[in-house]
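User: Hi! Is it possible to get a structure for several chains at once, not just one? Here's what I have:
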Amino acid sequence: MSLFKKFKAPLLLVLVYVALAMWWPEVSGRSTKVAFDYLQEMILIIPPVFVLMGLLEVWVPKETIKKLIGAGSGLKGLFFSFLMGTLPTGPLYVAFPMAGTLLQKGAKISNIVIFLGAWAAIKIPQLLVEAEFLGLSFTALRFGLTLTAVIVIGLIMERLIKSEDLPEIQEQREGR
Amino acid sequence: MTTIMVIYSLLAICLVWSLLKSRKKTKQSFIVAARALWKMAPGLLAIVGVVGLILGLLPPEIIARLVGEEAGFLAATTAAILGAITLIPALISFPLAASLLRSGATVTTIAAFITTLVMVGFVTAPMEIKALGRKFTLLRNGLSFIAALVIAGLMGVVLG
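Assistant: Yes, the chains can be modeled jointly so their relative placement is included. Here is the combined structure:
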C-alpha cells in the first residue's frame, strides 16, 4: 500500500484546513488551535502507551490473561478489568489497541467492555475534578449509575458477539 | 499532567524490569509497539483533524447555547448527541458543564452530555472498529448512548 493511500484521510483533512483558512478564517483559527493542542497531547501520551502495549504483548502469556480476565474468571475478572481501566492513562482512543491486544490474548468480551467503560468514565483524577465542579452527589450518582450500565452493557455484548465478529479472526480468514 | 506522570512512571518501571530480564524481549516489545503505532497513525492523525474541525465549528459557547436554554427530553437528546460527536478533555468539559448548570441547564441535560462525552466516541469509531471489530463498536456505542439517556433521566429525577 502506498504511503499516499495509507495517509489519505489526514491528507484530505489538511486540504479542508487550507480551504477553511482561505474562506472561513474564524473557524479555521479555532480549529487549528484545538488540533494543535490535541496533537501535542497525543505526541506525549501515545508513544509510552504503545510501548507498554508492546511489553504486554511480549511478556504476558495468553494463559495469564485468560486466567485473570478470560472465560470463567468470574467476579475476580470483572473487578480486575475495572481496576485496570481506572488507572490514569489518558484518553479512550489509546485504550482501543490495548483492548485489542487483551482480546487477542483471550480476555472475555464483557471484561473488555468493563475495561473500556472504566477507562472512559470512571477515572479517579477525573472524578476529583468532576466533584469539584459539579458536586459530590452528582459525581457519586453518575459513578454508580455508569458502573452499573457498563456491567449490564458488558453482559449484553457477551451474549451478542461471537468470536467471528472480532477482527483477529477475520484477518486469519483472509489469510494474512 | 498527573496522567502523563503516571504513564511515564509506569513505563519506566516496566522497562527497567524488562531490560533486567531480557534485552531481546525488550527490543521485540519496541518493534511490536512501532508496528502498531504505524498501523494506527493515519487514524490518530485523522482524529486530531476531525476533533479540531468539530470544535472549530462548535466552540463551547455554541454548545452552551444549544443545550443551555431548553429543558426536557429534546434538550437531553441534543446534549447526548453533542457529547457523542465532540471529544473534549475532562478538564475542560467539567467547568463547561458547571457553567451550563449555573446558566439554567437541567441536571438531566448535563448528565446526558457528560455521559456520552466520555462513553460514546463518534470520531474515534473508525479506530475502535480496527481494533475491536464493527459489531463490537456499534453495539458498545449504541448501548452506551441509550444508557446515557437513562442515566441522565434517573439523575434528573434524583437530583433535579
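Residues 169-176 of chain A have pLDDT under 50 and may be disordered. Chain A is about 80% helix and 0% strand.

User: Great, thank you!
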